[in-house]
Every structure is written in C-alpha cells, then in structure tokens.
Design goal:
Distance between the termini: 24 Å
Largest sheet: 3 strands, parallel
Number of helices: 10
Helix content: 25-40%
Order of helices and strands: EHEHEHEHEEHEHEEEHEHEHH
Radius of gyration: 20 Å
C-alpha cells in the first residue's frame, strides 16, 4: 500500500510550492487507495509558531486534503531521535565536532582543495581525524560541539542507491559530506529526524521538491546505517516567481491565505501549480 506524507515546518504561511507538494502526495495516495499523512516538523523552536501550525491545518483542509490523526509533531518525539543518534555513535558512524563556524570558514579558506557541494564548500572533516582520547578529553571538559555523520564510513563497501521518479541513482556520500545530525541547542537535525520519522510512519513514497534531492543522499546513508527501509522518492519541479527565484517563505512568496483572500478557490490553486 502506498503511504505518502506532507511534512511542513510551521515557520510561516504555506505558499504555492507547498501546495504543489501536498497535492501531489495526496493525489498519489488517493489514486492508489493508499494513506496520506501530515507531519509537523517543528524541531526549530526558535522559529516555529502555533499560529502557523494552525494555519497549515486550515489551508490544507481548504484545499480539500484529508489526513490521518493524530498528526505526528516532531517536538513530541525527541526520544526517538536520541535513540537513533546513540546507535550511530555506538557504531562509530557519527562523531563529535568541536569546530566553530569561524574555524570551519578559516579551514576552508586555507585549503584550495576543500570539498564542494551543490551550494558551496562543505565541512572539511577536521574533527573526523581526532583520536578517541582527544575527543573524550574535550567532551569531559564540556567543550561545545555538534555531532556529524561519518558519510564515507557508512558508504564504505556498500553499493547504495535510491529510486527517484522510477530511475535509480547511486548514493554519493560526498555530495553533502559529513552533515550535522545533532547540535547542543537542537538535539536533532532535519536529516536525522525526517529519516527516522519516515521509517516509523511506514512512508513508502516521499514527494517533495527537487531542491531536496541532495539531502536524499544523506537520508539514504542514514537508512543504511540504521537498518531502515528506503522509500521511493518523487522529487518534483520547483515553482518560481516572476524573477525566476524559487518560491520560499524567506523571500516573501505570496501565501495561500493571501490568494484565498484575493478570491482564489481550490481549483484555481490546482491550475496555478499546473495540476
């Protein structure tokens, strides 16, 4: 059975890009007699707001979407992510990183061969090289740190792939490198939380924008490291504004609520997103 989901963060109002993802995921499940789930990704306590979460429910219901209850809210399941992090650490597949942002920037500037990702330089792996005594000493002293995924170690000796829109893609551990999976101020990152959630909720198909395809390589590594099932992925085209920029909350994309106030109905929204 197909199980799809829509997983917004309540950090602003939904826009047309969100509507496209939600409608595609809903239509996929409904068309195959499957299940459609809504998940609220609210681990960023500094930016998430109750009023935005309430607006998500209201906008999706207005669009005609129905979802199963109760809705999974990430902030209520921190223990699930902590257990996953403990497993990664115990297996030597995650390591503490004590580098400050300035230290990382300086290290990258000193190295002409610094690894590059889709959006620029990646973490150069400085703390991956630390010995266990040094790590233990720093941790015992209370040094500020995050935890990073040891991407190459997970991928070593494995032929990992992921299915996106019916094509198989080889998983590239160097695409985003050793990403942060937990910080002192946030006990879990997006990458770890979404991977654990998709497995616990039995998600069979993940529908989301093509801008998240690089992140899917990280999620495939986490699935392999934690022994979790791998969903099929359907990364879709991105919607852009008149200037050709991807629609985003940060850039002030027109919200569904504003479109509703201007007289748009759900059928008009479907036409606007090309459905």
């Amino acid at each position: 059975m197909i199980v799809s989901r829509f997983a917004p963060s309540p950090t602003g109002h939904l826009h047309l890009g969100h509507a496209l993802s939600a409608l595609l995921a809903f239509d996929l499940a409904r068309g195959q007699g499957g299940r459609f789930l809504l998940r609220i990704e609210d681990i960023d306590g500094s930016r998430c707001r109750p009023e935005f979460e309430a607006a998500i429910y209201d906008d999706l219901a207005w669009l005609g979407l129905e979802w199963e209850r109760p809705v999974r809210r990430q902030s209520e399941h921190i223990a699930d992510y902590a257990r996953a992090l403990d497993r990664l650490r115990a297996a030597g597949l995650a390591y503490p990183c004590f580098c400050s942002r300035k230290q990382i920037v300086d290290e990258i500037a000193r190295s002409p061969s610094a690894p590059q990702g889709p959006d620029g330089p990646l973490y150069p792996g400085t703390c991956r090289q630390l010995g266990e005594p040094d790590r233990a000493r720093r941790l015992a002293a209370g040094a500020a740190h995050c935890h990073r995924l040891d991407a190459r170690r997970i991928a070593a000796g494995r032929q990992l792939g992921l299915v996106d829109n019916d094509r198989t893609i080889a998983c590239d551990p160097d695409l985003l490198g050793d990403v942060v999976i937990a910080r002192r101020d946030a006990p879990v990152s997006y990458h770890l939380a979404v991977t654990v959630d998709d497995a616990l909720q039995g998600i069979s198909h993940v529908v989301r924008g093509e801008d998240l395809l690089p992140s899917t390589h990280v999620h495939r590594l986490l699935q392999a490291a934690l022994g979790l099932p791998t969903p099929e992925y359907r990364h879709h085209r991105l919607l852009t504004d008149a200037a050709g920029r991807r629609l985003s909350k940060r850039d002030g994309a027109e919200s569904l609520r504003a479109l509703r106030a201007a007289g748009a109905d759900p059928d008009a929204i479907r036409r606007m997103v090309g459905l």
